[in-house]
């Protein structure tokens, strides 16, 4: 019994050490973004294969959202974002939804069903994920007009709708006062 516990501990320590070593070798230090930090640069191709650069949206309040067609909460969140876009676009809201599907056809199928009036950036090779480190699908980062992350949402529930609206009103009012 004592010998088997020692064996289990040894295997666990070896496994954890191996994972740590692997992350150091690969250079991956998955550090999640936090509120109050500058949003990382974000460039890519949108759904029309046009160049996209987040820096062009400086001066606007921006929702940067990571989503996938297989994500059940995303199926509810993105139509809600279309609603928010209609409500707040004239006041300076931009929404950038980053699709992480490997199969672009699934993203197109989803977008055909849900007419999304905002920018969709494709990340089929997952090059953008390491910059933001979303820990759940969907994850949304709300940026102020200076590109600072002010709110982070992981997952989506119907009750989040009022929270999103209040956060956006707060940031858009600050922008209008400036």
Assign the CATH architecture of the largest domain.
Answer: 3-Layer(aba) Sandwich
- CATH homologous superfamily of the largest domain, by name? Glutaredoxin
Shape: globular
State the major sheet: 7 strands, mixed
Computed over alpha carbons, the radius of gyration is 19 Å
Structural class: alpha/beta
**Could you name the ranges where pLDDT drops below 50 across 5 or more consecutive residues?**
4-29
Cα end-to-end separation: 69 Å
**DSSP summary: helix tally:** 5
Spatial ordering of strands, largest sheet: 2-1-5-4-3-6-7
- Strand tally, please? 7
SSE arrangement, N to C: HEEEHEHEHEEH
Q: How many domains, as an integer?
A: 2
> If you average the pLDDT, what whole number results?
83
| Assembly classification | single chain
Report helical residue fraction.
40-55%
CATH topology of the largest domain: Glutaredoxin
How much of the polypeptide forms β-strand, as a percent range? Answer: 15-25%
CATH class of the largest domain: Alpha Beta
Organism: candidate division CSSED10-310 bacterium
Pfam family, one: AhpC-TSA
EC number: 1.11.1.24
Keywords: Oxidoreductase, Peroxidase
